[in-house]
Every structure is written in structure tokens, then in C-alpha cells.
């Protein structure tokens, strides 16, 4: 039944794949050159690269649909829950469908974003072979899974305005963390790239990031399910 919800969601908003594709290509244009320059000069730390990746990578778990554009004005995520409750559809099916869509979005956006950067950046290809680059991608996808789990939890558990405020708070915390690490001479981009080049697909950083990130993603999905069943009143 979860796949039926996913199919219906794509049918009801046929342009969400196009909007998602366009936004991802836009991010490639905005960040691709800068990331390529960072690969070319790993000896220096550019906080902007860390910030861009921390900001954008969790968004790879989103499809840019009418619902995601209107969540602030129309509280569209809550309206979706009201709608599914009237059908009725079991709560686990609703949560599972959102988790699956998130993983599909990560695969779709990740292939386009990271693949495009590798193709358009000679500096990236010069310093990293494909196994190393895949390890680098795996590290950041793990980070994306971890943070994206919070976004999904907020989608289901709070109003559109509260979702917006919490997303802003997360960006603020991320910004402070990036600046603090930079002041100490540390860059997660540099650390992840060096780990990927050293260990390739055997990188413990990559596997640790994927396990922790995906584990947190699924645990927050389970927490969302529990809270929807016991705490949020949609009557």
C-alpha cells in the first residue's frame, strides 16, 4: 500500500520530478565550480564549501512538489495527514511511504548532483578516481540521511510555521558549527575527501557515516510513527 501512495503522489503532481531536477542542476551550477576548486586546493580550508554541503545535502531527501512549496502558507503536510486519515490509511503506511520517497529522492538527486560535479570538474577527476569519489559521496549521503530524518519528523509532527522555524534553527546551528570548525582549522569536506582518497570504498568514515546516518533516519521514522499513533491528534 505504501507504493500505491507513492504512485498516487507522483501522478497527482507530475511536475515534481522536473522541479527537483531543475533545482538540483541549479545547485550544480552554483556550487560545482567552488567544490572543484576546493578539491584542487585541499591544503586550504574554505568554510563556504562545508556550509553549502551541510545546507544542501539534507535537501536531497526532498521532492519539490506543490506540498513542499506551500507548507508555510497552507500547512500542507498537516492537510495531507488529515486527508489520509479520512480514507482511512494506516499510519505505518503513511510513514513508510514518506521514508521510501526520501530514499528515492536521495538516489535521484545524488546521482545528478554528484555525477554532474564529477563530470564538469577536471580538478575533481584529477585528484579522485571513481572509487575514491564514491566513498566521498557515501560520507556526505550519510550526513544527509541523518539530518533528513529530522525534517521528516517535523513534517509529520508540527505545523508549517513550526517546521519553518525549526529548519531555520538547524541552519543557524550548522552555520555556527561550520564557522567554529573553520576557526580551529578543521574542514569536514577536507577530512572526508582525504579519507576517501586514502581508503576508497573501504573508508571507515564512509561506512560509519552511512550506518549512523541511515540508522538515525530509520530510528526517527520509527519515532515519527510512534508519535503519530500516540501523541498527535488529527481528529
From TrEMBL:
The chain crosses the membrane at residues 17-39, 45-64, 99-121, 133-154, 166-189, 201-221. Keywords: Membrane, Transmembrane, Transmembrane helix. It comes from the Bacteria. This is Uncharacterized protein. It comes from Paenibacillus campinasensis.
Amino acid at each position: 500500500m505504501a507504493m500505491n501512495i507513492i504512485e498516487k503522489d507522483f501522478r497527482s503532481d507530475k511536475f515534481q520530478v522536473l522541479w527537483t531536477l531543475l533545482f538540483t542542476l541549479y545547485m550544480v551550477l552554483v556550487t560545482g565550480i567552488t567544490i572543484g576548486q576546493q578539491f584542487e586546493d585541499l591544503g586550504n580550508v574554505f568554510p563556504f564549501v562545508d556550509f553549502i554541503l551541510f545546507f544542501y545535502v539534507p535537501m536531497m531527501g526532498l521532492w519539490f512538489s506543490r506540498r513542499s512549496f506551500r507548507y508555510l502558507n497552507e500547512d500542507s503536510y498537516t492537510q495531507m495527514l488529515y486527508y489520509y486519515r479520512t480514507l482511512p490509511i494506516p499510519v505505518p503506511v503513511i510513514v513508510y511511504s514518506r521514508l521510501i520517497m526520501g530514499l528515492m529522492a536521495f538516489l535521484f538527486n545524488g546521482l545528478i548532483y554528484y555525477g554532474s560535479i564529477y563530470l564538469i570538474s577536471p580538478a575533481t577527476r584529477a585528484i579522485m578516481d571513481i572509487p575514491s569519489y564514491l566513498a566521498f559521496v557515501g560520507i556526505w549521503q550519510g550526513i544527509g540521511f541523518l539530518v533528513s530524518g529530522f525534517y521528516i519528523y517535523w513534517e509529520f509532527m508540527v505545523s508549517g510555521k513550526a517546521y519553518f522555524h525549526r529548519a531555520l534553527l538547524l541552519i543557524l546551528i550548522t552555520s555556527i558549527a561550520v564557522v567554529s570548525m573553520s576557526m580551529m582549522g578543521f574542514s569536514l569536506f577536507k577530512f572526508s575527501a582525504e579519507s576517501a582518497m586514502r581508503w576508497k570504498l573501504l573508508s571507515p568514515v564512509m561506512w560509519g557515516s552511512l550506518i549512523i546516518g541511515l540508522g538515525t533516519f530509520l530510528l526517527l521514522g520509527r519515532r515519527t510513527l510512534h508519535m503519530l499513533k500516540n501523541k498527535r491528534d488529527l481528529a
